Amino acid sequence: MTGHIYKDIGAVIVAAGRGARSGLDGPKQYHLLAKKAVLVRTYEAICERISPQNIIIVHHIDDEELLASAFEAHRAQEFHSTIGGKTRQASVLAGLNALKSLNISLRSVMIHDAARPFVSCDLLDALEEQATRFPDQGVLPVLPIAETVKRISDDKVEATISRQGLATAQTPQLFPLNSILEAHQAATDVEHEFTDDASIFEWYGKSVITVEGEKDNIKLTYAADFERAEKTIQMRENEPTQLPDIRTGHGYDVHRFTDGDHVMLCGVRVAHNKSLSGHSDADVGLHALTDALLATCAAGDIGDHFPPTDPKWKGAESHVFLTEAIRLVATHGGTVLNVDITLICEAPKIGPHRERMRQRLAELCGIDIERCSVKATTNEKMGFIGRDEGMCAMATASVRYT
Hints:
There is one protein chain. This protein has helices spanning about 40-45, 65-75, 90-100, 120-135, 175-185, 195-205, 225-235, 285-295, 300-305, 320-330, 355-365, 385; strands spanning about 10-15, 30-35, 35, 55-60, 80-85, 110-115, 140-145, 150-155, 155-160, 165-170, 175, 210, 245-260, 260-265, 270, 275, 335-345, 370-375, 390-400. The strands form six sheets. Strands 5-4-1-6-11 form a five-stranded mixed beta sheet, sandwiched between helices. A five-stranded mixed beta sheet has the order 16-13-19-17-18. Strands 10-7-12 form a three-stranded mixed beta sheet. About 40% of the residues are buried. The protein is an alpha/beta fold.
């Protein structure tokens, strides 16, 4: 159990039905969802807010072995149970009497269908909050009807009913324990089919207020409901328990122009009336990206790994530096997700070469070209770039670490 436990609220979980409409083999409340019985999942959801000692499970007289097996297999906590009656109404009354007989000082009781395993703590809290504000009234979770409602007779439409003010009822429904027990006791002598506990409470002359229900709080009724529930649980239980470790690194590099006939930019040879000066091939784009990748695992910068004072790197192609940075990222458990380079210069024009640059980056980084961005801008004739003395590059890299 986790979270805040209500001290003076009990619960009756109604699990005595046969669930014939489900088409399943055996009572639906013992059907396994992701290897755990529906009833156990419902019970555990209620236990998030209500102490097990304050919960009664109402079961069918023929299901004692199923009940024991379901809870034993999953090592659930000890629980109280009682045998239900021939109708849901009779089963709820049996559960209320059993809860009362525990001699625990309880103010209210939640009555919940065993076939609603997706009830959330948020809904339980909303019910409890309203019960605290209005202790003499019942509290009912409802969902407004969103679809058009028709009255049908002999497969023909008799009338269209305005859905304004109409809602469907859910469980759990919360009531003052003594009042709902008295209402159920009084209703035993009435020849009327009450479809839920709120209708009995209303019939008994008591008020019921509502809270917003939840779409996920479905009652598992048909086979398709169980198929959807299985998928829902698998998705929830396979979700990562923590946020992914995504890191972003930034790099910057600058080089002077010198005499020459081309520049290397992002691994692509671009004809130009000048070259970039550097110890290696001075690929300003790949240098900036190398620094960005190293930054994601705090591995220093390009000068730490490839010092310009080392003759070994004289005239080296800069893709060697980038490949080593990617290898270092991988040794730290990183996978490159996205790279973005901005080249800042007055010339040469980058546009005609952009796609080749992106393709080269994709090849070097081992990622799809859609994850490789190359942009360019001028410096509006200002500064050393404006005077055509050199160019610089800024790079950003995103890496997922495990």
